[in-house]
Amino acid sequence: MGASFGAELDTLARVRFIESRLLPLPPIFHSYTETLGNLSYFSTILFTEKNIGSDAKSETACILRNLIRQTASYTRNARFLLVKTASIAQLLSDVLALKNQDIAMQQSGHLFNLTTTSHAQNESICAMTRASVKDSSTVRVITVVMLVYLPTTFVCVRCLEFL
């Protein structure tokens, strides 16, 4: 999963790079179209004023119209590619976000398991502490009994030895 995640992140970076390279193309093609339109206008004026043959005039006009159409086609293609790269980048971003959510859910499950285990260990420690306190109170009772009876037993044994 880690290798796939890295590959998708790398792919997203590459798509974003392509998108950044395509972004300036439509304005460039637009200015190119305007330039060709101006050339067409000036060629018409030039051919009209200089009385150059109609063959050269029509050939130049045809070439300029074809260039304008090609530029319009390039502009449409660049816009289409921009839309496609944006949608692919969005799709990759969504996939990465989904994988992040999946990883977060798995980590949440692991944390829940750790919490459950920790809770069980805490209960076990509490039970051992209660048993230790109970043993401690039993030892106290035995100690008190020994404190009461041991000296008297000692005295009685000593007295019997003298008699």
Oligomeric state as shown: single chain
Cα distance spanning the termini: 92 Å
Tell how many strands the DSSP assignment holds.
0
Low-confidence stretches: none
- Helical stretch tally: 3
What is the molecular shape? rod-shaped
Helix share of residues?
Answer: over 70%
Average pLDDT level: 86
- Our count of domains comes out at 1
The fraction of residues in strands falls at under 5%
Secondary-structure element order, N to C = HHH
What is the CA-atom radius of gyration, in angstroms?
Answer: 46 Å
Structural class: mainly alpha
Reported for the largest beta sheet, the result is: none
Comma- or semicolon-separated keywords:
163 residues, mainly alpha
Model description:
This protein has one domain (2-136). The protein is 96% helix and 0% strand. Helix 2 runs antiparallel to helix 3. The chain is rod-shaped and about 160 Å long. The mean pLDDT is 86. The chain has three helices and no strands.
Brief synopsis:
The protein is mainly alpha-helical.
Write the layout of secondary structure elements.
Blueprint: H1 2-22, H2 25-50, H3 54-162
Helix pairs in contact: 1-3, 2-3
